[in-house]
Amino acid sequence: MQQTEQGPIIRQRQRELVQALHQVLPKHSILYHEEDTRPYECDGLTAYRQLPMVVCLPEDEAQVQAVLRICSRLQIPIVPRGAGTGLSGGATPIADGLVLSTAKLNRIVRIDALARTARVQPGVRNLAISEAVAGHGLYYAPDPSSQIACTIGGNVAENSGGVHCLKYGLTVHNVLRVRVVLMDGEVVELGSDALDAPGLELLSVFVGSEGMLGIVTEVTVKLVPKPQVAKVIMASFNDVVTGGNAVAEVIAAGIIPAGLEMMDKTSSRMVEPFVHAGYDTDAEAILLCESDGTAAEVEEEIARMTAVLQQAGASAIAVSQSEAERLRFWSGRKNAFPAAGRISPDYYCMDGTIPRKRLAEVLTGIAVMEQKYGLRCANVFHAGDGNLHPLIMFDANQEGEFLRAEAFGAEILELCVAVGGTITGEHGVGIEKINSMCVQFTQTELNAFFAVKKAFDTAGLLNPDKAIPTLHRCAEYGRMHVRNGQLKFPDLPRF
Amino acid sequence: MQQTEQGPIIRQRQRELVQALHQVLPKHSILYHEEDTRPYECDGLTAYRQLPMVVCLPEDEAQVQAVLRICSRLQIPIVPRGAGTGLSGGATPIADGLVLSTAKLNRIVRIDALARTARVQPGVRNLAISEAVAGHGLYYAPDPSSQIACTIGGNVAENSGGVHCLKYGLTVHNVLRVRVVLMDGEVVELGSDALDAPGLELLSVFVGSEGMLGIVTEVTVKLVPKPQVAKVIMASFNDVVTGGNAVAEVIAAGIIPAGLEMMDKTSSRMVEPFVHAGYDTDAEAILLCESDGTAAEVEEEIARMTAVLQQAGASAIAVSQSEAERLRFWSGRKNAFPAAGRISPDYYCMDGTIPRKRLAEVLTGIAVMEQKYGLRCANVFHAGDGNLHPLIMFDANQEGEFLRAEAFGAEILELCVAVGGTITGEHGVGIEKINSMCVQFTQTELNAFFAVKKAFDTAGLLNPDKAIPTLHRCAEYGRMHVRNGQLKFPDLPRF
């Protein structure tokens, strides 16, 4: 992406904004020299870079309110930023905009072990919550792979998942309440400590809204008890279709494993020399099925899962015999991305979600695309919730390979939508997938999104041009809209 | 409530609307003679009655679209209606409005046993879903006590619960997707068959929106496997505070019972002569704790719950020894409302929700109010999720008792909010509790609700004056807003 350079107009706006911010923030919380703003030019999607006009780091809610009031008055767009670990460019700055970092809002406000909740500021790291409550035998369940670094504010913005989300839910299922500063500087609380609440349920809209509706200043999360025991089954399959169907069978049997992950042979052969996880590298597909709970629950569930997997055609089954072995089985899955980086000069990680029962069909489709594009694809996924992470391998130095990889990725996402799935599982839309939104949603649905966005942020200053494409953009992209496997040509844009 | 009579203006509007509806609906789907519209004058909140101008019963989605387009054009307000079993007056008609009944949209469209989902039209009864999928060993979990009669469309509108919602969730947790006709006649699909979806999460806003955002024409629900075994513990306590604390201890121990219900002595003595459930009528409080799952899971969980309840001070514990005994233990709880009707000329059923840990405190507060108002109150509740149903008993024929009961009820709800709870658990706001919304929410929060309402229904034609009070109404009501136990005087209304 080409950066926009600062011209005289941006420099004038910058002076105006910095001057106003100095009235409400301490000097050390305002950054605008290039050497200070450079670290904020991208998030985890490093292909998109843009130097922001100003960065600010408020230290309490009142400062957040003051910043939003200033930006409303001066009509400055704001890009909210957590730890910057996002993979879809949701925190990519705007050349004439402000980056509002929540890094300094990092206090754990209150832990209530009896009610099993914690109230924390958005800059608290995901793993720091679990560490703080470990003494009570509790933890915070959603565990994105970036959990050492990512913060709860970013998790709320992206509705982050992790390997345990099949059983324990995504961020939206583990957050009870948020305090939010709206663009006019007013504070609202969304959600409630109770199971149900009257009024419109705006908490779930806020979670996953990618910074477009307001700035979160406090998050009340649910905590869950640490399980006494956990064991994992490694099951081998002679073909990916049988493995895919076995996933559907486990779920259809009424079992909700603590984790249910699948890797194809390309993936297991890729990681085994690297981490020595003990994988069956002759199998076309490997399933990892975890059970957690009390000793009796785990014993019974492992027995039931084993029976279902055998019935579904597993060619071999191994159960972890110790905590060390359990962690070793998982180490292969968790190191799939770095392993891809060892065997291929470049790779492109996709993130799509499909109905579980269509898994076998989508795997077959991806195999056909490998031939069509002449590129290899390693498939690892959160199979239990149908969240695919195909890793397309290519060499950017070979003429045309990057473009082929991009087209391959786009075709995978279109297949996901065609079988009734979605274009993202847990990485968000950001700027990376904004064109794919035109494929996923009808014009009426995009209009509904914009109407709600406008209800919170009338002037459209919060993270503009992310997550929801304008109809104009969709018209330019010119892709068809696919709904329930039916092709549907987009209506003409309204302008 | 005083009914508004039909004057010449309403009669003129009626002629106009009926004429337009005849262009798009069969004759038998349009009702406007008083003898035909009389059955629609109220829902389960029978104190509020109003004859509607017209009732219509569309038979497919295209007819729903046509009706909404006509009402948009003629600016006719619409009250959507399911089975009319609601308890908060959400389906109370408007004198110059249309009642849109979903009763004829009653097809089960598709059952997918492998994916464990069912796609149904809104007029399908809650229990009919479970009956239709019983052959697959599945059922639909949310079970409001009206489940024989109430329909899934109404459940979606009210976000209905039931005794199993502690473990299995409310309606919002059991619905994957809805098809909705918006006021301009356009159709959108909210939600997805996948765990997560890109774009704003509007499904959760729609569920529980009490008919204010659109008309649902199709609902995709999750199905769950029927448990192999269920058993229930009946635990006695010598005082309600100890019983209330025991509820918090069960949850704090990391157990999620399939049901966790509490009754005080007034309630158990009220129902025992009526149903002979075998209750300990000397106990000040009785807890019913259910476990379901496989035989091994249930055995282990019953043992753990027994240990926690003993530790928490239970004076006696009994475990159901057969399915017949289990159903008998539950029969008392489920017949509490009819039993109240036998011993008291009138009763007023409240529906508030509080954080579980504040249960003992709220019970003590209600006991003090009994003295203050000179009225008895039987307390039954979905204790596990903190949803109280205090039954205030009174005799409307005694001078002043109705007003005292009403004031008693309002004070209970204000106590619920003061301890961090809400004014409704599962019965909705409707028109009954609309004033209490002024106590629950700040002006900024009510503004946010209205902004979202307007994003879906610009002209405000869908179920106006329900669920969300106007700021003008709150100003007239003049009650203080209580947040987190802190009194806060309302800001001046903005007009």
From TrEMBL, chains A, B:
Cofactor or coenzyme needed: FAD
Domain FAD-binding PCMH-type intervals: 48-226
Stored Gene3D superfamilies: 3.30.465.10, 3.30.70.2740, Vanillyl-alcohol Oxidase, Chain A, domain 4
Domain of life: Bacteria
Keywords, in A-Z order: FAD, Flavoprotein, Oxidoreductase
InterPro entries documented for this protein: FAD-bd_oxidored_4_C, FAD-bd_PCMH, FAD-bd_PCMH-like_sf, FAD-bd_PCMH_sub2, FAD-linked_Oxase-like_C, FAD-linked_OxidoTrans_Type4, Oxid_FAD_bind_N, Vanillyl_alc_oxidase_C-sub2
One GO molecular-function entry: oxidoreductase activity
Protein name per Swiss-Prot or TrEMBL: FAD-binding protein
Source organism per UniProt: Undibacterium rugosum
